Each structure stands twice: as C-alpha cells, then as structure tokens.
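thought: fold this chain, then report.
action: predict
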Amino acid sequence: MCTTITTVRDQIGRVRNVEDRMRKAGIVIGVIAAVIILVSVVFWATFDVNAYREQIQAELQGRLGRPVTLGQMVLSLFPPSFQVDDISIADDPRFDNPNPFVKAGQLSVSVNLLPLLRSRLEVTSLNLHRPVIELMKDREGVWNFSSLGKGTEQAAPAPSSEGESAGSFSLVSLSVEDGQLDLTDRQSGQPRAIYDHIDVTLQDFAPDKPFSVQVAVHLPGQGNQEVRLQGTGGPVRQGDIAATPFQGTLDFDGIALAGLQQFLNEPALSDLEGTVTGKTKINVQPGTASANGEIEVRKVRIRSLDLGYPITAQYSISDDLKTDRLTIGKAAIKLGASPLDISGTIDLKASPAQFDLKVKADSLSLAEASRLASAFGVALAPGTTVTGRANADIHVTGPADSPALNGAFSAADVQVSGKEIPQPVGIKSVNFTLTPTDIRSDTFNITSGTTTVKGNVALQNYMSVTPSVNARLQAPDAQLPAILAIAKAYGVKALDTVNGKGVLKLDMHLSGPVESLDGEAIMRALNGEASINFNNLRLSGTNLSQDISKVAGFLKPTGAGQRFTDISIMTGTIVVKNGIAQTTDLKAGLDVGTIAVSGTADLMAQALNLHVNAVVAKGVSRQVGGSTIGGFMKTALANNQGELIIPLVVTGTFQQPKVGPDVQSFTKMKLKGLLPSSADPGAGLSELVDSLFAGKPGKGQQPAAKQLQQKPAQNAIQQMLEALSEKKKEQDKQPKPQK
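observation:
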C-alpha cells in the first residue's frame, strides 16, 4: 500500500515538472515572437525599399540582359513582399521596337524574410498585373525573346558576397494575370495582332532543371470559355530561350467559335458558329515541334446555315523550326461520317507557301460535301439537296495561291433535288482527270424523267482569274420539264418563269473564258442551237394577251388581272451565240390568236429585245370591237380575213418584260402592204426587222441590238415621222417620168 502511494506521488511530481518546463518554454517563445514582431515592425517602419531600387534594377537587368525601369516601391511584411509600380523592360535594340518588351502597371515581388532583415534580397516569386507583352519575329525568323538572359557588359552584375552567379537565378513562382500579348511577324508580313486576357503561371523555375507551365486564355461567352495549355518546360537553353524544350497539352472544352474569333481577330472565322472540343499533345525540342491530337466542332453553322453534322479531325503534324517546313503525317478529317485524308508537306518559309500534299477521299458523301459548299455559296442554289458518293486521289503541288492538281475525281449515283426543282436530276457516274493545266471529264449522262442529256466538260487554266470552259450538251429528244429541272439544279435563273410540256432538240456548246463557274456567269460562254416544239406552256410574271389588248385599245380587254401567259403551242429554232439567244422563226398560239417573234435575249443579263407580230383571230377580233378598237389604224391593222395585226416591241427583263407598240414596224407594214395572217403570223417579220436596221454598224455606229434598246425612248409620232421620211426618200430616189 505504501509503495503504491509513493509511486503516485512520484508521477504527480514528474507531471508538475513537465508543466513548469512547458510554461517556461511558452514564455520564452512568446518573448522571441514579440521580439521578432517588434524588430519586424521597427524594420518595416525604418526600412526604405526604394533605396534599393537601383540595386534591384541592376539585378534584373543582369538576369534579363535588358534595361529595366522600376517605379515607386512599397514594402509589405505579411507576407514578406513589395509592390512595384510602372515596371518596364526594354526590347532587344536589334528589333527597333518603339514599345517596351514588357510594360505593367504593377509588379508584386515575394521575398524571403530573414535575408531581407539582413538587407539582402532573395526573390521567391513574381506576379505581373495586367502587363502588355510585345512579341516580335524579324525577317530572318528570330524572336525578340530569344535573347533574354544574355548579359551585357553594362548590365551584367558582379557576383554577390554569397558567391551567387547569374546562372543560379531561381523562382518558386512567376505569374501573369490578365495579360495582353501583342504579336508582330515581320517575316510573314502579317499585320500586328493583339491577344488579350491571358494568364500564365510558371512554377519551380531553376537553372538546368525542368519547370511547370500553365497558360489560360479567357474568351468571351457563357460558361467557362477557357483554352488551357499546361505542361513541363526546360531546362532553359541559355542564350536561346526559343529553343527551350516543352512537353504539354492544349485543351479546348466546349469553346464557342464566336469567342475564339474575337480573341484571334480572324475575319475568316466571322461566318462560323459552333463549339470546339479537343486535346492536342505538343512536344517542342531544339529545332523541331510536333502536335498530335484530335478536335471536334459541333453545332456547326456557316453563314447562318446549320450544317447538320459535326466536323472532326485527327492529326499528327511536325515542324522543322530551322527550315520552317511543316510535315503533315496524318490529317484525317470527317464531314459527319465522310472521311477525307490529307498528308504531305508545306514550306512555310517560302512566300507564298509551297504545297506538296496528297488528298484522298473514299466514298465521300456528296450530301455532306454539297451542304458545306452550299454554306459558302458555291454553285448550287440554297435548299438544293445532293446525294451520291465521291472518290478522290489528288496530288497538290506548287504555291498556295495557284497550286497545280494531278489525279482523279469520280462521283456515282448522284441525284439533285429540291423544292425549286420540278423533278430529280441524276448522274449515274462521272469521272474527272486533273492535270496542272486542265480538268476534263469523260462523257456522262444527265437524266431527269425520261430525258437523257449527254455531256462532257473541260476546264482549262482553272487557277487563273478567268478560266476557260469547254463543254457540250446534247439531247435529241429532250422533254421540257427535264430541261427545266436540269437548269434549276445548276442554278440557272433564266428559265425560272417557264413551265410546261413539249420536246426540244438540244445541241449546246460552252466555250470561252468565264469569270466564275456559277449558273449565270457561265451563260456568257454558251453557244449552240435548240429546236423546240412545246405545248401547254405557261410564262409567269407577264400577261401577253392583256398587253396586246392595251396596245391595240380593245373595247373588251382579254385576260385582265392575270399575271401569266398561257401558250397552247410554241415552235421554232433558237440559236445561242456567246450567251445571246436569237430567233427569227418563233411562233406561239395564245388565247387571243397567234404571234411570231424575232429578236434577241441576253441570257446573262436576262434582257429582252424582241419584235412581235400578234395576229388576233377573226372571232376574237369581233368580240373586242374589230375596226372600232381604239388603236385601229394607229397601232393595229386589219387583213382581208378580218383579223387584227398588232406589231409589238418587247424589252425589259425576263422577270419584268415591257410591251409597247412597234410604230416603225406598223408604218412599214402599212406602207409596204405586209399584212400577216394567223396561218403565217411571221410573214415578212425578219425582213422587216432587217430593213429597220439594214447594213452593218460602221465606225462609231451602234450595233442593232443597242439601237433596238434605245428606240422605245422615242415617242410614237417621232417614230412614225421617221418611217414616213424614209419612205419619201425612197420615192425621191425613183426616176421621174419624162414629159
């Protein structure tokens, strides 16, 4: 029992001894802390960090090899750091840059406390707030930052008392907050580019050791619109920072193309919408750089047109930094599910860049390719649907602005349809051969309904501003609806107002230079002949029967209020020369009678210049007033069969034709006794037109087509007087009878 009591007393004593020692230790620690705080406060109150400005400037200049300017400096002890206002780092003088390499409103510098208390500066981290950084590449391809760290005799600092050399400079952290990057590339001649809202963090930087890098670019838009680059760099190559190794990844996570366009200020992206997701592995080693990864663009809209499928790309690219030669090991692009493979090299040092690329497509969907082309306004009219498959194997060489193509391209089971195309148009198969000078097809068949049009096409000097086209289309027995469908499938608008039935014999040749390959521009190169035999035809936008009624002054006008012309039958021949269609024997049956047409139509400008003889049937003539009509003997004549003859001039455009009285033809008919009939409405019409513009235009004289366009500007009385004057001159020339 006594032993137990003694043991307890000993333990209590030991506990009391521990408590005494801890109390004494706490007092000592408190005193030390109070002394440190007191010393720190005294130091903070008496230490003037600005007195060390020149020393710090010299230190930074020695590290960077550039002149450095520091503004007002303010010390903070907790944590130990100081802030510098208006910092500026000059650029390499060889670049003749009026702007500093770095300019920032504020620089935060973190330092170690104990060395600072001994008046020695040990920097642990730097933080630049809203800096502007100027990056510049000269004409030889050298960057202005590549000389950073190269000391100069003036700027090189002497080793410190601790034996520290310039090569031992290290940082725990270097960060840039909301920085702006200004980029000038004098080698490529591109305009100066500005990139804003960039964050950079560099950690654990030390000579001859790797360090970590994180770069974040903040883009405008909803959500976390951020492009992030992170990886490991170093060791830094002294004297050539641009050759410092780096391995990392570049991440896009649902980035809006609109925000990316604003950041890059790239006009080429202004018409694109969508979201970008992808990851790229980047590896930069001395003399080489490579990128491997994949990217996907979803919800793609081009010029407000929804593409309807994603675009993906898997790629492996490397760049020889010394020769600036880009090698594309693989670029597998998919338009939806349609693959397109690209490989080869691009010489970026040449101006313009030189291509040596191979492009392959295997079973490419024409529906997806044509939708992409339609978004850029190429060839096909909006709303047109194309189906089929295509294969391509093309070698692209030469300068970027005029590359040469060698290889082949083929398409099969092509079908074109759309709301504006009355019936589908198909091509079973077509093959193209490509050379540096021309693109040629084999003979292929275009089908629509029961009609087959045989064709072939060649495009010469296709990289010039005005390539030359040489093509032929033949159809011995083509149906009108099929021809209208084929024309609309290609975007030809000249026949938009026509629909009906009938057949035509077609033999057309396209030949000559063209400014573009769209349906309207290519009309200028059209030559050939078409024999037509149509029935139940309707022309929209004009009512020829009503126009005839107005010109003749019918007491009871026909077809009032209708905006179309129904033609029971139309026959004749149309000859096309360089996009100008001409006819001398076109005849048509209307509800009021028959007409004969002679003149021209410009298929490119869609301009009309026609002379028309309208013969009103005897029964209709009686209904509308016969010889009591307002235009009788003024704009209308009567033949011996009781029919009315109204000569007309049709000008204007296909969509808005202008119909008026042909006073000169009226006068000629009256004086010469040329009175057509419904059986032959064109009797004497071509001779009459020739007599109006007899002879070839001489020097300074306008062609007949131009004169025809200008004649309607004269009033009817002037035209009649001119015609009578011509008749009188003819009579005066006749020999007078001898008395």
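thought: worth noting. Residues 541-693 form one domain.
final: tokens above.
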